[in-house]
Amino acid sequence: MSLIEGELLIGSSNVSVLINDKETLAVSSLVYTQTINAARSVRFDLNNLEDSLKCDIGDKVVVLIDRVPRNVNTVVSNAYNTGSSYTSAYHFEGIIRQLTPTAKGASVVAYDYISLLKTSAYVEYKDEDVIGRDLYTLIADAANISQIDATDLLGGIGIVATKDMNLTGFKTRKEFIDLCINNAVSLVSDSTKYENPLNAVYWQYAIRYGNVFDLYKLDPDNVHNGPALEVSFDSNNVYDIKPTIDTQRLANSITVVNESVNFSFTITDESSSSRYGINSKLVTTGLTEREKIETTAYELLGRFNRPSIKYDVSLSNTESYNLGDYVKVKHPSIGDRLLPIQKITTDFSSGTTSLSLGEKELSIQELIKLIK
Q1: What value does the mean pLDDT take over residues 321-344?
Q2: Which of 79, 169, 199, 263 has a 20 to 30 Å separation from 243 between CA atoms?
Q3: How far apart are alpha carbons 110 and 175 in whole angstroms?
Q4: For residue 133, what pLDDT is reported?
Q5: The pLDDT value given to residue 87
Q6: What are the helix and strand counts (H, E) for the chain?
Q7: For the whole model, what pTM was predicted?
Q8: Three-class SS state of 229
């Protein structure tokens, strides 16, 4: 059974859409979208003029699934009363950014408070305030505005800001956070956890509940990861599985160059080049030891000699999932893959959820810079 039953959401006890913590809206459709490192959005339709007149650009919107019942306490109180099947995965807070009047009402799009980080005033980030500090604390400081709860952002990534990260200068808060996230990548190697010697661990952010800013780590190559969901063409709740096989990052012939020591090394995977065609990459390195350069070339080839795979999975919204959850996809020709969720789109009118699965797309040059 889906979270929302019936063709119309009007009068549904499962869905509550509140405007400015005062009024409830009767919506006829609701689509909720979550994307990594970006603001969530809700899009809903109003089929009566009375409700449409309650909405204006900049108004606060709260969406709750299974909140009981509609009364002054649940509408006005910040401690929203919830029902037995309430899920925080769909607890949305944000502001109206788009409002399109229609003959019968309006179509409304609201974004969460990460959108305020994107449109923030420009901040001058100076060397003395940035260099040498952990990226985690820098992100926490940049996300700390009055509309966002950043109180849980305690700890560290273990990567400190350096001059070559280009974090300083005038930037919006989100521009600064995105630069920190782009640099929040490390390489790990542990034969008890990974099948390959080069494995990227990286960080992402989102507001996954209410107004709480969340900074979380992904370790997709770790063999001990467990799936939040397993899907296949035989799954009862799966409508469609669409794989995308991408050769854009594929490299089956790699040349590593260090011009300062006048040394280069090329290695080719004949099996991969025969199957997919030759795809060569030239990368530079600061490594100076011949043995280390050759080993690095072998390790890079082992990671990039196959196409990358992404999936779009459409299923019933009987369960809720979070960004960063791992999904195991069983495909008869591609095999089994465990991939993190990068985007979630839930249409409560049709009772369907679409999941976009894939890993962070790091290039060979980005990885080799991390090798010490």
Answers
A1: 90
A2: 199
A3: 21
A4: 97
A5: 62
A6: 9, 21
A7: 0.87
A8: strand
